[in-house]
Amino acid sequence: MKPYIYGPKFMWNLDASVGKGGSNSDPCDVSFIQWYYILAADFHLTDLDRKVLYRKVQLTGTCAGTDADPLVQAILAHQRILNHPQIDGRISVVHGTAKIGASAFFLLRLEARFAVMYPDKWPRLDLIPRCPPKVAEVSRYAIPAMSELTQ
């Protein structure tokens, strides 16, 4: 994971794709996405069918990348409900214009919902409940320290 600026917004980007057929090679990236679905399972704007599906996602930092993986199932359901232009069960690294047709990359759409869930804490992921340790570390690292500001 790494910081990403999308227009005037501070967002987060992945180092490697997560989900169906994805690289799933970075445990921090996978944990970040799993954590989102774990939190979304308890969010009042998530419909009951998706809550049931999201509750199957566990915070493991791994994803098999197959249709049987609960994270892939959650991503697919989420992409469908948003009418995302690519319903593939994968969350890709944001690049280029950060758009797929007229829509933002799925990662950015997911994060917009994350920010709605925790508007007083976003983008400080380390302040959001149950933040995975690796994700918290990346979040804290993105905050400049006075010692880094040399003249």
Characterise this structure.
This protein is an alpha+beta fold. The chain has one domain (2-141). 36% of the residues lie in helices and 12% in strands. It has five helices and six strands. It has helices at residues 27-40, 48-54, 70-81, 106-117, 133-141, and strands spanning 2-6, 9-13, 18-19, 90-91, 99-100, 103-104. It has a two-stranded antiparallel sheet with strand order 1-2. Strand 5 and strand 6 form a beta hairpin. The radius of gyration is 15 Å and the shape is globular. It starts with a strand and ends in a 10-residue tail after the last helix. The mean pLDDT is 95.
This entry's quaternary arrangement is: single chain
The major sheet is characterized as: 2 strands, antiparallel
The termini sit apart by 28 Å
Low-pLDDT ranges: none
Number of helices: 5
Shape: globular
Structural class: alpha+beta
Topology of helices and strands:
Elements: E1 2-6, E2 9-13, E3 18-19, H1 27-40, H2 48-54, H3 70-81, E4 90-91, E5 99-100, E6 103-104, H4 106-117, H5 133-141
Provide key terms for this protein.
151 residues, alpha+beta, two-stranded antiparallel ribbon, 6 strands
Can you give me a brief rundown of this structure?
The chain is 36% helix and 12% strand. The protein has 151 residues and is an alpha+beta fold.
